[in-house]
Write a structure and sequence with these properties.
By secondary structure, the protein is of the alpha/beta class. It is built from ten helices and 14 strands.
Length: 298
Amino acid sequence: MTETSAAIRMRGLVKRFGPLTAVDGLDLDVPYGKCVGLLGPNGAGKSTTMKALTAQVIATEGEVEVLGYRLPDDSKQARAEMGVVPQLDNLDTTLTVEQNLLVFAHLYRVPAGERSEAIDRALGIANLAARRGAKVEELSGGMRRRLLIARSLLHRPRLVLLDEPTVGLDPQVRQELWALIDRLRSEGVSILMSTHYIEEAERLCDTVTIMSHGKAVAVGPPHELIREHAGPEAIEVYGSPTRLTEIEVDARQRGWSTRRTGTSVAILRANGARDIDGERRVTNLEDVFVLLTGEEIT
């Protein structure tokens, strides 16, 4: 174990699967006590990156350090001090909610005298106290997701990896999770979160890394990326498909960036132009995401 200034330090990560390069020279830092977002369209390499941090996949090239431990050699020690919320549900459906947590309390080596309190705390976080005796197979998709999140926090980890943490959660529960992430960060827990909810990343993350085709295409605090790539204001223009195409051509000829948003075109970096008939709005991280990745939000 080495002393580092970051909970995660990744340099030049490359992961190939045969002829496919899933991650191509990625650098990534998660400072202690910060929340970092990993954004990208499907196939950008987010999940492969997350799996590399738990040594589920071994890097073809590059260096990975987690909590001062070098991976893959010291992956067992690193995993003992981190919590992981996987993208796919891997709960044991034959066990109850409480039994699932008890199994992981043993795996995380929570002291015997503290397991009951740890489980009660986890059930409270997940708002599942009333379902502690229910079989997992009886839970809704949202409840199962909340149980996965609670399970990752049983041993009070120093680092939490959240891979699409709010998939399947209703808006109320998602808001509760956002509050929990803020609380964990305030307590000094480091967080790496991959997500498709761009608003989630903009609201919660100190910095974000936007990936496309296995590479980082932008890194920085959300407000700085918005200012750099989208400007302070967008002009939303509505009309027929033909009209929208004309607007796009005209905007690009004038050196402005555009993005389609359903039945409208958003004109970015128009610098307060007043000869465009459209609705003015504040730009956001989703504008930056779509502009840089060239992909639809999925």
